[in-house]
Inverse folding.
């Protein structure tokens, strides 16, 4: 079961402003990535379920985070159906992120009060997600729609909380464009945890990048 309620997760997303995204089949490598992000100040991690037996890897990583990293909240992304969402929630996923809006996923997550963040690409989809109880909507793919799309949404719907994924980098100008447009937080994958970092196992560098990115977000918001 999830350790953190959907409101607790939403609050941490809003407070920190960033959700790192990551997937790898190597469990030990995964532990080091999560630890580096944690030491850099991140308190959320989206494990993107994109490989064979990914649920087994997540199970080990979540147990590790619970035992060794107090306050680290692990969730799962790239979920496309209610069965997968239910499986990961049984393994303790604290939030579920999807590339599309699916009502069956909303139902199983709401039943357990687990935050779910559906990928939406229109104001109609966003409105429906909020009607289904969504706290923070995922704008996906973010690089297709951009900050101006967010600004357009926030005009008639200032209550909407948005997390763009795709098209977000650690660059200050990029981050400023998103947060100035009104996003609640951003999801960053390969622009933060690159293949180069994984191949070289530069976890000290990753920790420093996470810390610097969080500091940039805080500065932009102040």
């Amino acid at each position: 079961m999830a350790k953190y309620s959907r409101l607790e997760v939403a609050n941490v997303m809003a407070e920190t402003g960033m959700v790192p995204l990551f997937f790898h089949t190597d469990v030990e490598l995964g532990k080091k990535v999560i630890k580096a992000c944690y030491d850099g100040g991140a308190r959320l991690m989206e494990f993107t379920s994109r490989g064979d037996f990914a649920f087994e890897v997540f199970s080990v990583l979540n147990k590790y985070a619970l035992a060794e990293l107090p306050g680290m909240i692990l969730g799962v992304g790239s979920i496309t159906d209610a069965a997968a969402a239910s499986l990961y929630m049984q393994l303790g996923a604290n939030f579920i992120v999807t590339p599309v809006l699916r009502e069956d996923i909303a139902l199983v997550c709401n039943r357990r009060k687990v935050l779910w963040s559906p990928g939406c690409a229109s104001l109609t989809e966003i409105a429906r997600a909020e009607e289904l109880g969504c706290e923070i909507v995922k704008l996906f793919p973010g690089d297709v729609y951009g900050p101006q799309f967010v600004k357009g949404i926030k005009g008639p719907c200032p209550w909407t909380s948005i997390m763009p994924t795709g098209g977000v980098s650690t660059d200050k100008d990029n981050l400023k464009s998103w947060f100035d447009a009104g996003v609640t937080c951003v999801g960053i994958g390969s622009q933060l945890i690159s293949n180069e970092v994984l191949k070289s196992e530069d976890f000290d560098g990753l920790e420093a990048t996470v810390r610097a990115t969080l500091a940039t977000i805080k500065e932009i918001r102040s």
Notes: The radius of gyration is 16 Å.
